[in-house]
Amino acid sequence: MFKIIVFSRVSTEKQDLDQQTETLINYCKSIGYKDDEIYVIQVKESAIKLSEEERIGLQRLKEAVLKYKGIDTVICWEISRLSRRMEQIYSMRTFFIEHHIRWIVYYPYMELIDKDGKQSQNANLMMAIYSTFAENEMNLKKERAKRVYEYRKSLGKFAGGKILLGYKVDDEHNVQVDKESSELVKLIFNMYSTGEYSFRSLAKELKSRGYFENSSEHVIYGRISKYLHDERYIGKVFGWPQIIDEELFYKCKNIAEKQNIIQKPVNKREMLCKGLIFSKLRKISLIPEPAKHVYQTHPDYGKPSLTISSKYIDKLILDYTQEQIDKYFNDMRKIEEEWAASQQIFFKKISTFTKNRLKIQEKLNRAEELYIDGGITKERLDKKTRDLKLELAEYTRNIEDLDKEYSERERRFFNQKPVVLSEVSFEEKRKYVKQFISRIEIEKEKPLGRRSKVYIHNIYDNKVYVYLLYSQNSKYERKIKKPELLEVI
């Protein structure tokens, strides 16, 4: 039966895990654990780039704690091995406390959570200090990488990231024109300059010709939009050789600007689905018509426009959003994700207080050194020490108060109640609709028919909910049926 987890992590494939792991295993044996009681997790992954959910090591650690009920202790080499991000460290602290897990850091030795699954004030202070060190070191690494990027960029060399279509990079990090892919870039600009294509139709045409085989039309559409606005193609960015002449580039840019003009309705009356509702067949948006209480497409010559009553579709979308809110509040994982995002202010504060506390400690050390060297008298040392210790105590209290505030806010967050949309403002309703729904598509059996299929694209689960919506004139209210959920795609 496993009783202790040895957690080892390095950032790159070149680094060696074995020495770190071996030392921790030997320590576990020295404090009484047997070989068959030690569960080892070794990972090579970045603690800078990945979120907690993306960290394979942390997910394996949590799974092991939940799976093997006999585990009561986790040990890691140093606090940065668990994570370099303060929010992740505090999130893991909460996990350990909830499951009564003792947490030991080998170097420098700290028992951050005791065998009863509790954290003392001193342990909390040490965790704040060393997690701040780990995060600062992470930020320094990011700054160094940024300086390298800026330096290479200043020399006109490729600084990193994904190389732009039409170019390649040599061994000296110089950007060169790639003969094959640059022809595709020229083709894109020349086709678009005819004015016969939108971004989407051009994406479809290129896909049909065999280009971008492994990409969807939607992805290609996004890329084309970026390519046609990227001034590196005309050599305006230092180090990037020219592929497209300026006249062609600006011609395409002007066409794009004209095609992207959207006519906004003058009357801004409350229309819940504004900007989200489209015709499924024609792939065009339905325009809000507040005076008529409808959403409708612009009619083609000789054809009726697609029209749907805002009264019925807005009610369906509002009810659907309320259902999603209720479902969301029953999904703890999503709530935890939002809670992690809201922690940033807390971590900035505690990091600031910790840094200030360290500065006071440095001043205390310097005062003692001055006294030893004869720079100040004993009376002066005592006064300075007394004043600095008062400041030190103040920062310590601030950290402790923040920790209490964090715990209280955490409790309130997890006990919050679902939102009732009927009790909030229109702006709040719109905010929640856009939080859960990315797109609404309408399909009618007949252009002037009263029954419509409504396709609701859900952001959270990436599924499409298909409803049958009945709409009648107000004088036939008794005949109205409730919307039916036909299928989930």
How would you summarize what this structure contains?
With 489 residues, this protein is α/β, with parallel strands linked by helices. The protein contains 14 helices and 15 strands.
Outline the structure in words.
This protein is α/β, with parallel strands linked by helices. The protein folds into four domains: 4-140, Resolvase, N-terminal catalytic domain (Rossmann fold), CATH 3.40.50; 167-259, Hect, E3 ligase catalytic domain fold; 277-326 and 424-488, no CATH class; 334-414. The protein is 48% helix and 15% strand. The protein is built from 14 helices and 15 strands. It has helices spanning 18-30, 56-67, 79-82, 86-98, 121-154, 179-193, 199-208, 217-227, 246-259, 310-329, 332-342, 344-372, 378-414, 426-436, and strands spanning 4-10, 38-44, 73-76, 102-105, 110-113, 167-169, 175-177, 277-279, 287-289, 294-296, 307-309, 437-444, 451-458, 464-470, 484-488. The strands form four sheets. A five-stranded mixed sheet has the order 2-1-3-4-5, sandwiched between helices. Helix 5 (121-154) crosses helix 12 and helix 12 packs antiparallel against helix 13 (378-414). The two termini are 44 Å apart. Residues 261-268 and 473-478 have low confidence and may be disordered.
